[in-house]
Write a structure and sequence with these properties.
Layout lengths: L4 H10 L6 H21 L34 H5 L5 E2 L2 E2 L8
Antiparallel strand pairs: 1-2
Length: 99
């Protein structure tokens, strides 16, 4: 699959990346090569391969999971007690994403 530079700029914008024209050209080529390789992998017949639930080791499905149950929560005042900056019952943090 061949990506054009407009598609690369679109994805870069979604990731909040500023690319130079040279970088855009370079990444269009690199990403196109990756997608071509993935297309080649999709040609493999995996119909006899069982889906994997845990890739690290063979255990029961629930061996690494705990029950998802609600527990007691901290009162807002306690949770915010050591916050460097808080207000209106919330943590306040510096702006990190600007557009």
């Amino acid at each position: 699959m061949k990506l054009n530079e407009e598609q690369v700029r679109y994805v870069a914008n979604l990731a909040n990346l500023a690319l130079t024209p040279d970088e855009t050209t370079h990444f269009a080529d690199e990403l196109s090569q990756i997608l071509t390789y993935v297309e080649k992998l999709n040609e493999l017949d995996t119909s006899d391969v069982e889906p994997m639930a845990q890739v690290l080791f063979d255990v029961e499905d629930t061996a690494t999971l705990r029950a998802d149950t609600a527990g007691e929560t901290l009162p807002v005042e306690v949770a915010l007690a050591n916050a460097p900056l808080s207000g209106a019952g919330h943590f306040k943090v510096p702006l990190v994403i600007e557009r």
